[in-house]
Design goal:
The strands form nine sheets. An eleven-stranded mixed beta sheet has the order 1-4-5-6-7-8-9-10-11-13-12, with helices on one face. Strands 17-16-15-18-31 form a five-stranded parallel beta sheet, with helices on both faces. Helix content is 25%, strand content 20%. The chain starts with a strand and ends in a 5-residue tail after the last strand. It is an alpha/beta fold. β15, α12 and β16 form a beta-alpha-beta unit. It has 22 helices and 34 strands.
Length: 776
């Protein structure tokens, strides 16, 4: 949780200096825990303020007092501002990648060494070798160094990009504000300088007139700089245009004093002049000297391009437990078929909005290729939430086959939904009063809007009209179902809370009980709550406890909390704290007594260490292990007429439960139709095949569905962008139309030279260069 409260960190502890590594870890931990304003008291520690980044919407400000050591702001990140209230040591801004660094004093040697982005503002003078080996990426703003006074020797040595400004104001060396031998080896960038100097390397740099556009940029940014260092009052005295000089790097050919020769001129004026007609073998042949192609086509190519469209599974689809073709949905959006893209999800889940839009931790986004390239993954929730508007899908005629589904939660409704879509009748039995399982009865309304869940459950009821609620299954009833139905699917989830065998366990409130009561608005928690178990369910308990008036909420665990994502963020947002490792000795009316002897005071103690299935109704021939039903890879139990899915098999996410339902339904359908299973055996595409250079890495959020679709790399599936066709130097690639609006990209072997341009340029990775193996 981001907070504007200033966090103070000292570089000294118990009278001893804290190691630089330890202080850096503490700074990074504070930022990860939500701190955005930090004040660091330095005692010579190195690297303060470097490598901090959350997002552009959560800027970080680090104020440094005391005496910072070397490499302050090293590898500084975009969104970080580091303000030093005095002088700074060597290598400030070393390898800076975007941070703004403000020095209210002098800076020592090596400032901005190899800096690529960001700004360094110095309110005093600079030491030697400042602005050396800087660089510029054309996709980002160039780096900047602003110095109020003068700079030391070897300034801008091997400078390769960016802007440096030397104001010459109250400088330490008024007679030579650029120091000794500036600009040696300079190959890029520019320097604005005011005041006297003793020249610069004329071989590497030159003076250039300051045009109006450049002067306007300079004066605007000068005002920003002076404001940052608290010197706005001198702006007028520093904006006399005639006092400034602009130094820029010479081009390579300016340095050589020559013009580049064409190949024909080189051959005529150099090669033939020195070696004679025909060069080294001119006395051995009189062949035509016209250019001879060095790269051949046809069977003589070393490599040939192969169009491998849809050969591999995209990472998003491979990561989704339901097998949702995320990439195909974005393709439909690009084609203007938004409704079709939204409705496609119904073939994979009855809850496209509830789960994909709100409750899923979005494993597809975690697998997204863009994320592997340090870019923002495509936001699936935008299309997921549109699923609430999906219509009831067209249903096939019933086959006469019947499947009983025991459990009306996520897994049960998923398998029943899929069974009906495949043309068989599904009848759902559940002991609750309403459908939806924990989604409807326990997950807080803060995580899923009531109207969204209600709309999706209504759609489910239209597809599955045969539902029997308030039906607690018995062994006799189960046996009767086995006789009456072709198959049974067990999807009862986990309903029995796990309780640790400790003294005072009768005082514990099970998390599931608490959440169900909270959903009905029927709980009293008091001011202090302790939650044993710091997973995501425990976080839901914390947010609900806060809603009912708890002011001090503590989640404890015996290990590092497993909570993550939105649940953990929401718990922290209401002030919940996490503690571990904590071992409970007993529970009393006063709270939780730890084995260390510490008492955690609590009005209410809630236990959230998981639930287990209630399997009392199952016959002995269905094997169980550690309280869960044993199944094979097809979710079939030891009774071949009974399948089991979801948490009754193994604990998992909602998407795992839904995915189990889809897989089990497919197996049941294959058996009923006497078909052999046809699983998707594609391997996941290697993320290195995609070319992400076409996408802006600075994009951190998406505005709408169209932007999401356009930013999708469409891994392994051709976007029909025509880039390969346009980039081919031999015009060997063409688009061939097929039936049903399909197409393929074809490479003409008589034209193709196997250069690999198509494969290297393709954003989707559908072209592969394979070694040529001519026949014969």
């Amino acid at each position: 949780m981001a907070t504007n409260t200033t966090v103070f960190l000292s570089g000294q502890e118990d009278g001893r200096r804290v190691e630089s590594r330890i202080l850096e870890e503490r700074i990074q931990r504070a930022v990860l825990e939500g701190a955005r304003q930090l004040e660091v008291e330095a005692y010579g520690q190195h690297g303060i303020g470097g490598r901090l980044w959350i997002s552009k919407d959560e800027p970080i400000h680090v104020k440094v007092t005391g005496s910072p050591g070397q490499r302050l702001g090293s590898k500084g990140a975009f969104g970080t501002t580091i303000e030093i209230m005095g002088p700074v040591s060597d290598d400030v801004g070393w390898l800076n990648a975007g941070a703004n660094i403000i020095v209210h004093g002098n800076a020592s040697n090596g400032a901005c060494n190899a800096m690529a982005q960001g700004k360094v503002f110095v309110g005093g003078n600079l030491g030697a070798r400042g602005m050396t080996m800087t660089k510029t990426n054309p996709r980002f703003d160039p780096p900047e160094l602003w110095v109020l006074g003068s700079v030391g020797d070897y300034f801008a040595e091997f400078m390769a990009g960016g802007t440096a400004v030397v104001c010459g104001y109250e400088s330490q060396n008024a007679a030579n504000v650029l120091g000794y031998r500036p600009c040696v080896g300079m190959v890029g960038g520019r320097i604005f300088v005011r005041g006297k100097h003793m020249g610069f390397s004329q071989v590497d740099a030159k003076s250039e007139a300051i045009d109006d556009e450049t002067w306007n940029w300079f004066t605007d940014n000068l005002a920003t700089y002076l404001s940052a260092i608290g010197k706005s009052d001198i702006l007028d005295s520093l904006t006399v245009r005639d006092e400034w000089q602009l130094i820029v790097a010479r081009s390579p050919f300016e340095k050589l004093g020559k013009k580049r020769k064409s190949m024909s001129d080189f051959r005529a004026e150099v090669w033939d002049k020195e070696l004679g007609q025909g060069g080294l073998i001119g006395d051995l042949t009189d062949i035509d000297r016209a250019p001879i192609p060095l790269v051949v086509n046809g069977e003589m190519r070393r490599y040939v391009p192969v169009w491998e469209n849809r050969k591999y599974m995209p990472p998003c689809q491979m990561s989704c437990p339901t097998g949702m073709p995320v990439q195909e949905r974005w393709r439909l959006v690009r084609a203007g078929l938004v409704d079709e893209a939204v409705d496609l999800a119904l073939a994979y889940t009855p809850f496209p909005a509830t789960v994909c839009g709100y409750l899923c931790p979005n494993l597809c986004m975690q697998g997204c290729t863009r994320g592997k390239g340090n870019m923002q993954p495509i936001d699936i929730t935008q299309i997921g939430r549109q699923g609430v508007h999906s219509r009831v899908p067209d249903l096939p005629e019933l086959s006469g086959k019947r499947v009983a589904v025991i459990g009306g939660g996520a897994s049960g409704l998923s398998v029943a939904w899929q069974i009906r879509l495949k043309g068989h009748e599904a009848v759902v039995f559940d002991m609750a009063e309403t459908l939806g399982g924990k989604i409807a009865s326990a997950i807080p309304d803060s995580r899923i809007p009531k109207e969204v869940l209600s709309a999706e459950l209504e759609r489910v009821k239209k597809v599955l009209p045969h539902v029997k609620l308030n039906n607690k299954m018995t062994k006799d009833e189960f046996q009767a179902l086995r006789e009456d139905y072709d198959f049974i699917v067990l999807a009862v989830g986990t309903q029995k809370p796990r309780i640790v065998p400790i003294e005072g366990k009768e005082l514990l409130v099970p998390a599931l009980t608490f959440l169900k009561d909270a959903k009905r608005g029927d709980v009293k928690v008091g001011k202090k709550v302790v939650i044993i178990g710091a997973g995501n369910v425990g976080c839901d308990v914390a947010t609900e406890a806060a809603r009912f008036g708890a002011e001090e909420i503590t989640l404890i665990d015996i290990q590092k909390p497993a909570a993550f994502g939105k649940e953990k963020h929401d718990a922290e947002a209401v002030g919940a704290t996490f503690r571990w490792p904590c071992y409970t000795d007993k529970v009393t009316k006063d709270g939780v007594l730890l084995k260390t002897g510490e008492l955690l005071a609590a009005d209410t103690v809630i236990i959230s260490i998981g639930d287990q299935p209630d399997l009392d109704f199952l016959p002995e021939n269905i094997a169980t292990e550690r309280g869960h039903v044993v199944v094979n890879d097809n979710f079939m139990t030891t009774d071949n007429k009974v399948f089991a899915i979801g948490d009754i098999v193994r604990p998992g996410l909602l998407t795992h439960a839904i995915g189990h339902g889809r897989q089990a339904a497919q197996v049941i359908d294959d058996i009923l139709r006497e078909k052999r299973p046809q699983p998707d055996t594609r391997c996941m595409i290697d993320v290195s095949r995609m070319t992400l250079e076409y996408f802006d890495p600075r994009l951190t959020e998406f505005n709408d569905l169209n932007q999401c679709a356009s930013e999708c790399s469409s891994c392994g599936a051709c976007r029909d962008c025509g880039l390969c066709e346009n980039i081919c130097p031999q015009s060997a690639i063409s688009r061939k139309a097929l039936a049903n609006k399909e197409f393929e990209m074809v490479s003409d072997p008589d034209k193709c030279i196997g250069c690999g341009f198509c494969a290297n340029a393709c954003p989707c990775g559908v072209w592969s260069m394979q070694e040529n193996t001519p026949i014969g």
